[in-house]
Amino acid sequence: MAQDPTLKEADIKGKLVAYSSDQSNSSVEKSGLLGSMPMRLLPADKEGKLRGDTLLEAIEKDKAQGLIPCYVVANLGTTPTCAFDDLLELGPICNRENIWLHVDAAYAGTAFVCPEYRHLLKGVELADSFNFNPHKWMLVNFDCSAMWVKNARYLVEAFNVERIYLKDQHKGLAPEYRHWQISLGRRFRALKLWFVLKIYGVEGIQKHVRHQISLAKYFEELVTKDQRFEVCTSSMGLVTFRLKGENQLTKNLIHKIQERKNIFVIPGQFQNKYVIRFAVCSRLTERSDVEFSWQEFQSQADEIIASKITCEVSDKKGISAIQLSDAGCDKNSIEKCK
């Protein structure tokens, strides 16, 4: 309104638009719905990062249509592959365009306790707010979310609703956290965070993070040694991988794994490839657990590939679908062989 006094508040709300990467968490898209504004999910590059030129192109296109870009969510550790957006690319654009830059480091933010990963934070001083979830990797019980804001005044003014029964003589002497969110009350999460910091200390948390990353690297090595598989991405405690070949093979593999219920993994999408996300999460995970998980993948891959070979041979020899079923060929392969 300061830039264009002719616009009314209702006019501005109808023109606001926000941006993030198509690799962002689902909560980012949901925030657009809650804020009643379009959330543009911009395409990431081949490494899963949102680039500055992609963001700038989208901003200029929307401004040309009379819209008002107001909010960007950058990712330090995307959900699908734990990719890190370059804040030194995105930050200057947001600052120049007067756009609020929020950094979502929900999972990977804990890694910044280790000096060797802080280079990924370069440009964070250009952001307006920063969030990470200690309950995801910092050993804190669910739920606990920590957020910093460069200027809390904007947050307070946005949620400030004065009532006579809320006034007191201490106004201005201490932060009134009822102005920081929608509800008047909130759950008390600081104590459990304090206990983790007290018990583990900085060195203990660093040891935990480094140990889990080393386990993920170990799993990556196991996958690489098996020529039937390919590693798609590896970042922090997350490895994405797949069976080489058509996506259906990996879909069949994860379906078998989920049916057996010995380990829990979920699928993902990377460069039009269907992948499996292997994330080291529990503080109790050891090398033996990683080896057990890998044996699960290998044993089920053996069955899938054997079924595929049986199907391919039967296609040449005219074996019936009943025979294929008896041989362990999955439903999709049987349909293909018919």
Task: Please tell me about this protein's structure.
- The modification N6-(pyridoxal phosphate)lysine is found at residue 136.
- Belongs to the group II decarboxylase family.
- With 338 residues, the chain is α/β, with parallel strands linked by helices.
- The chain is built from 11 helices and 10 strands.
- The chain has a 6-stranded mixed β-sheet, sandwiched between helices. A 4-stranded antiparallel β-sheet has the order 7-8-10-9.
- Helix 8 crosses helix 9 (287-317).
- The chain is globular, with a radius of gyration of 25 Å.
- The relative contact order is 0.07.
Layout of strands and helices, then pairs:
Layout: H1 9-13, E1 16-21, H2 26-34, E2 39-42, H3 52-64, E3 68-75, H4 87-96, E4 100-104, E5 129-132, H5 134-137, E6 146-149, H6 152-159, H7 190-225, E7 229-235, E8 238-243, H8 247-260, E9 266-270, E10 273-279, H9 287-317, H10 321-326, H11 331-337
Parallel strand pairs: 1-2, 1-3, 3-4, 4-5
Antiparallel strand pairs: 5-6, 7-8, 8-10, 9-10
